[in-house]
Design brief:
Blueprint: H1 22-42, H2 48-65, H3 68-86, H4 98-144
Helix pairs in contact: 1-2, 1-3, 2-3, 2-4, 3-4
C-alpha cells in the first residue's frame, strides 16, 4: 500500500479519507434537518416534492466534501427531516400519503447514488494522482540516467 492510500488518519486532509472529522459529520447530520425545518416553517404550502429537490441539493453538496459516513448521514437525515417537517402528519415520523412515500424513497435512492458516484470519483482522483507520481518518478529516473 502506498503512503497516500485511502486508509488515512481521521480528520486528515487526504482526499480519499475513510473517516470524516467531526465538523463534516455534524454538518452532514444537521444541515438537511435544518433545511427541512426551515422549508416547513417558511414555506408550508410548498409541494413536498419541490422541498425534496432542495434537500437533494444539500445531499449533493455534502457528498462532494464528505466520505461514505458523511454521505450516509446526509441521506438519512434528509429523509428524516423531510418526513418529520414536510409530510402529513407534520412533526411525526409517519407518512400517510403514497406520493410522499415515493418521494422519500426516491430521495434516498438519489442520495445513495450520488454518494456512490462521489466515492467513485474520489477513487479515480486517487488513482490518477498515483499514476502521476509514478510517471514523475520514471521521468526523474530517466533524466538522471542520461
Amino acid at each position: 500500500m502506498s503512503k497516500n492510500s485511502s486508509a488515512a488518519v481521521p480528520g486528515s486532509s487526504v482526499p480519499g479519507r475513510l473517516v470524516s472529522d467531526g465538523s463534516v459529520l455534524a454538518v452532514a447530520a444537521g444541515a438537511p434537518i435544518l433545511i427541512a425545518a426551515l422549508l416547513g416553517a417558511v414555506v408550508p404550502e410548498l409541494d413536498p416534492a419541490a422541498c425534496a429537490l432542495v434537500l437533494v441539493l444539500v445531499i449533493v453538496a455534502i457528498t462532494l466534501r464528505g466520505d461514505w459516513l458523511a454521505d450516509l448521514l446526509a441521506v438519512v437525515s434528509a429523509a428524516a427531516g423531510f418526513d418529520f417537517f414536510l409530510t402529513e402528519p407534520v412533526h411525526s415520523l409517519k407518512i400517510h400519503s403514497a406520493a410522499d412515500i415515493e418521494v422519500t424513497v426516491a430521495m434516498l435512492l438519489v442520495g445513495a447514488a450520488t454518494g456512490a458516484l462521489s466515492m467513485w470519483g474520489r477513487s479515480r482522483d486517487r488513482a490518477a494522482a498515483e499514476r502521476s507520481r509514478y510517471l514523475a518518478e520514471i521521468s526523474r529516473a530517466g533524466t538522471r540516467g542520461e
